[in-house]
Amino acid sequence: MQLRLPGILVAVFGLLAAAVPASAHHSFAAEFDANKCMDLTGTFTSFEWQNPHGYFHLDVKDPSGNMTSWSFETVSLSTLKRSGTQRKDFMDNRIGQDVEGKFSDSAKEY
What gap in Å lies between CA 40 and CA 74, rounded to an integer? Predict the structure, then answer.
């Protein structure tokens, strides 16, 4: 029986390890189309600092003057932190300010 115990333990731990969900990873190209980049200027309305990505929201006026709300997904929070970006960079003193940037549209239709 003692000779079988190590094999049983290895099998049990192997099954347990396989049952743990793998961490998700997706590339930019899987989610977004780099050929659909656009320049937008809008009013910064809110920011959500949550794992695995942050989200920020802009109100953008189209050429005819109609307001449209846009939501944008950031890179991972760990990537933002490594680049020196902190949560406080998006806090209340930024809400209501006009911002502009280059954004990529979703590659998939939802």
Answer: 16
Q: Indicate the CATH number of 27-106 among 2.40.10, 1.10.3430, 1.10.3470, 2.40.50.
A: 2.40.50
Region of 84 on the Ramachandran plot (φ > 0 left; ψ -120 to 50 alpha; else beta): left
pTM of the shown model: 0.61
CB 75 within 8 A of CB 61: no
The alpha carbon of residue 101 and the mean position of all alpha carbons in its chain are separated, in whole angstroms, by: 17
More confident residue, 61 or 19: 61
Residue 45 corresponds to which amino acid? T
